[in-house]
């Protein structure tokens, strides 16, 4: 009941996006995304070794749902809800006080509600949106403590594995943000396109389908990994919350070979028993590249950790 009351308070009217406008955006984006998806996978299949064997069946099921039955309640679809939407009530209760104290109530409400409409906030979807978005703001609040400067000052981000696009939605609230790129499998890039086109408007997001497409300011670029060899993208911050740790070694090696996409800072979340790397070896390697590297356990999610790295000196080290 506390979460329901909190949801009603955070998402109280007026909502940023009119439901009819959202419906039109969703319908048009879905039509575009389905055509683009078929074209992308026919032109260039994803690199081999990028999908964990346990995910292959999930992808086939989500693909069928996306091409045949996808609608504005997609966050409630069991497989999407179970893999892309964080909904642990106990964790939310542990995270909410930190998020609530992180910024003013109006700012937190603005961030959590950015671009949303009634369709994404009805029934359990609204609770899921609140819990998932709070969870992602908690990542940023904790990382801000480590980096020593406000997260809103980050100008460019590369995210590896973006779920349905919600972290990008949150980052788009930040005035300092210029460029945001999500690298993902084509199917999930297309789902992100539909969601972000609905909440940000079609001018706020671009599904990249052609090699050598240059980056552009003011939009979220969705880059299918099929195009990555011909499509360099860099960012000040590299972020991946569980996605990189749940991929095979080939994906992790690609990120290392790209020098973490030129990042000056890194935020990873991972489970200690579900990752393709040795944490000790990774930390040793990162310490040769970054000024500070740290791991932080999430005590309310046993076995899960943040890995944080930055080129910045610790606050106070400059005297």
Q: What's the quick description here?
A:
Helix content is 45%, strand content 14%. With 319 residues, it is α/β, with parallel strands linked by helices. The longest helix has 25 residues, at 19-43.
Topology:
Layout lengths: L1 H9 L8 H25 L9 H16 L9 H7 L4 H14 L2 H9 L9 H25 L8 E5 L5 H6 L7 E6 L1 H15 L4 E3 L12 E5 L12 E5 L7 H9 L7 E7 L7 H9 L4 E6 L6 E7 L9
Parallel strand pairs: 1-2, 1-5, 2-4, 3-4, 5-6
Antiparallel strand pairs: 6-8, 7-8
Helix pairs in contact: 1-7, 2-9, 5-7
Stated plainly, the CATH topology is called: Rossmann fold
Task: Give the strand line-up of the largest sheet.
Answer: 3-4-2-1-5-6-8-7
Taken from the alpha-carbon principal axes, the silhouette is globular
| Low-pLDDT segments | none
Ends distance: 48 Å
Estimated structural class:
alpha/beta
Oligomeric assembly: single chain
Order of helices and strands: HHHHHHHEHEHEEEHEHEE
Q: Indicate the mean pLDDT.
A: 93
| Annotated CATH homologous superfamily | Vaccinia Virus protein VP39
E-strand count: 8
Helix content: 40-55%
Rg (C-alpha, Å): 19 Å
Number of helices: 11
Largest sheet: 8 strands, mixed
Query: How much beta, percentage-wise?
Result: 5-15%
- CATH class group: Alpha Beta
Structure description:
This protein is α/β, with parallel strands linked by helices. It contains eleven helices and eight strands. The chain has helices at residues 2-10, 19-43, 53-68, 78-84, 89-102, 105-113, 123-147, 166-171, 186-200, 249-257, 279-287; strands spanning 156-160, 179-184, 205-207, 220-224, 237-241, 265-271, 292-297, 304-310. The protein has an eight-stranded mixed sheet, with helices on both faces. Helix 5 crosses helix 7. It is globular. The protein starts with a helix and ends in a 9-residue tail after the last strand. The model has no long low-confidence stretch (mean pLDDT 93).
């Amino acid at each position: 009941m506390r979460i329901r009351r909190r949801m009603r308070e955070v998402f109280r009217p007026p909502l940023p996006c009119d439901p009819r406008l959202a419906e039109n955006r969703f319908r048009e984006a879905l039509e575009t995304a389905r055509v683009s998806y078929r074209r992308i996978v026919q032109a260039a299949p994803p690199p081999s070794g990028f999908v964990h064997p346990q995910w292959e069946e999930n992808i086939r099921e989500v693909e069928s749902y996306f091409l045949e039955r996808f609608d504005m309640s997609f966050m409630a679809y069991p497989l999407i809800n179970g893999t892309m939407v964080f909904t642990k009530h106990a964790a939310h209760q542990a995270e909410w006080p930190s998020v609530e104290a992180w910024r003013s109530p109006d700012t937190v409400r603005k961030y959590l509600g950015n671009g949303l409409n009634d369709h994404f906030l009805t029934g359990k979807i609204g609770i899921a949106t609140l819990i998932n978005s709070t969870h992602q703001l908690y990542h940023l609040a904790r990382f801000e403590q480590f980096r020593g400067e406000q997260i809103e000052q980050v100008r460019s981000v590369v995210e590896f594995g973006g779920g349905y696009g919600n972290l990008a939605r949150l980052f788009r609230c930040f005035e300092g943000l210029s460029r945001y790129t999500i690298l993902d499998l084509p199917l999930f890039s297309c789902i992100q396109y539909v969601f972000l086109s609905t909440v940000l408007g079609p001018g706020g997001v671009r599904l990249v389908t052609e090699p050598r497409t240059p980056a552009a300011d003011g939009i979220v670029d969705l880059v299918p990994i099929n195009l990555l060899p011909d499509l360099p993208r860099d960012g000040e911050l590299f972020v991946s919350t569980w996605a990189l740790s749940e991929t095979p070694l080939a994906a992790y090696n690609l990120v290392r070979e790209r020098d973490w996409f030129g990042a000056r800072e890194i935020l990873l979340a991972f489970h200690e028993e579900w990752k393709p790397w040795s944490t000790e070896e990774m930390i040793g390697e990162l310490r040769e590249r970054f000024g500070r590297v740290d791991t932080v356990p999430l005590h309310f999610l046993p076995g899960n950790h943040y890995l944080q790295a930055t080129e910045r000196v610790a606050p106070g080290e400059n005297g």
